[in-house]
């Protein structure tokens, strides 16, 4: 039996009354790398609800540019990352398709912020996702997930294309790389801390 799958009762909820649990959404359009990101960064075996795509789903979901994709998230992904003795991040990955909007609404409750993953080759697909996050009033950072052979875009070009506010953080990362993914989360957490400090100043 895979020892990584033998989980005790504390596997998903970390003990310790002195710790602060922070709920973070990991969002983005279909096939942008959310499941990969959480699987890479989570310190526990991630909870994933990936299912094989059927011909019916292929007819509904736009597979342009992602023809090799064979699975899709149908509920959520969940992972955990301890960033200090006092702060634990609980990461909730949302499905990227419009038909799962109710799940978004449920998971947005209690979230402190969101990391928005975008594909630099499919920026227009991110508009609806960013609109939803802003509708829920969540602060967010943009994480540009660099895929193999993707041409580089300047931060200025990305900001203009996504119509971002000047203070919205933008970080380039690779969801398959642990250090890169961690840096994206650190960027978001620092931004949330700065906003919280300004609100309480």
From TrEMBL:
Gene3D superfamilies: P-loop containing nucleotide triphosphate hydrolases (3.40.50.300). Keywords: GTP-binding, Hydrolase, Nucleotide-binding. The keyword Hydrolase applies. InterPro entries: Gliding_Motility_GTPase (IPR052705), Gpn (IPR004130), P-loop_NTPase (IPR027417). Coiled coil: none annotated. Pfam families: ATP_bind_1. The keyword Cell wall biogenesis/degradation does not apply. CDD domains: Ras_like_GTPase (cd00882). Belongs to the GPN-loop GTPase family. This is ATP/GTP-binding protein.
């Amino acid at each position: 039996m895979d020892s990584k799958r033998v989980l005790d009762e504390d596997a998903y909820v970390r003990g310790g009354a002195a710790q602060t649990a922070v709920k973070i959404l990991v969002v983005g359009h279909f096939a942008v790398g959310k499941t990969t990101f959480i699987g890479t960064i989570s310190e526990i075996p991630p909870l994933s609800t990936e299912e094989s795509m059927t011909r019916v789903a292929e007819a509904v979901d736009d597979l342009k540019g992602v023809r090799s994709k064979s699975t899709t998230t149908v509920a959520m992904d969940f992972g955990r990352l301890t960033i200090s003795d006092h702060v634990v991040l609980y990461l909730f990955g949302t499905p990227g398709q419009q038909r799962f909007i109710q799940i978004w609404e449920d998971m947005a409750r209690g979230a402190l912020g969101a990391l928005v993953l975008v594909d630099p080759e499919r920026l227009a697909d991110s508009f609806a996702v960013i609109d939803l996050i802003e509708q829920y009033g969540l602060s967010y950072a943009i994480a540009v997930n660099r895929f193999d052979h993707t041409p580089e875009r300047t931060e200025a070009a990305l900001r203009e294309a996504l119509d971002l506010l000047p203070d919205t953080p933008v970080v380039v990362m690779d969801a398959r790389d642990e250090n890169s993914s961690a840096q994206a989360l650190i960027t978001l957490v620092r931004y949330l801390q700065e906003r919280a400090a300004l609100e309480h100043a």
